[in-house]
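WARN retry 2 of 3 for item q-0093 after timeout on previous attempt; input resubmitted unchanged.
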Amino acid sequence: MNITQTTFMRSEAYGRIRLAEEVVDLARITLLRKYPESESKVTGVGVYSDSLEAALRSSNMSYDRIKFKLDIDEGYLKSLIYGFVKPFFDVLWSNADLYHATDELCCLYMPFMKGKKIVTFHHVFRGNEGRSPTLKIVWKFAARVAVRFSDVIIAVSERTKEELIEKMGVEEERIRVIMHGADPYFVDMNMPRKKVIGFVGALIGRKNLAGGLRAFKLFTEMPGTEDYRYVICGRGHLKDDLVRLADELLISDRVDFISRLSNEELLEFYNTMSVFANSAMHEGLGLTALEAQACGTPVVFFRDADIPSEATEDFIPADDEYDFARKMHELILEPYRKPVTDGHDGDRRDSFKRTLELYREVLQQADRTRS
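OK item q-0093 returned
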């Protein structure tokens, strides 16, 4: 299978989602989501939103969208207009039976929505995580609004559910855990592996790229690693610090920072790296590591990292940075055997089927209340 052929898989995969006829005839659905992202700036939340829309279309369900552009890359004025002003009036003019916010930042105007409300939490915010102080304030406010006004909260993992209960005081009965695995687009293409240790994700504190760099430094001191490179794909406020650290560790000539990969390039990157170095210390789920694993790439992670066990079941644990380096070294010496799993709990098609079935459940409850 070549890369071009796989570009058709994303739409075809969701075409296989079929629900009971009564779901197709449900009343008005409105998605609250961030603006669709360009291929060069893809996030896990964006992929989740796109995939949910694909599931809705494949199930012949009509829906509307209210989009939020909370991004200052195009200037503060556009962020204000398309992140706050326009969505506010779109909400006022909307008339849906069910609203689904694909992340908590899209919940600012939930008090003005008359229909039933669902929100998906991908993880519970800790520290600044690379966000600006202003966005941090907005997130905290939006998250509190989401918790207070939503009828049901979707958590992407059991760990996120626990954090919602412990840190935000959410009642357990209001939470549904629906884990979404790697997009069906990401598959093992049996491509030759390059001498690359890879990472994909935001360059922020909780991703612990400093620990990844130190582990790679130790890895380079082991036999047979002379030609291996550490390729870090992502953007974030810590890039300059990480570049300096690579210089201090004397490995800058073997570390590459890239920020723009198309979907096809990302698929190839996952399929040709030797190891995915998941150095993160906290994840709500950790989608990029799951995508790499779906492409047949072994994933090494820190055993004490706060990552849901559902996600790390087939990852390779390391006790510390030296052990992390040692595990990567072992993986390049011995052929990696991809875990054999049925993929049921993490299958993206199944997760979105469960989400659409949740729509039916919530709307049926609303009908019983009205009657």
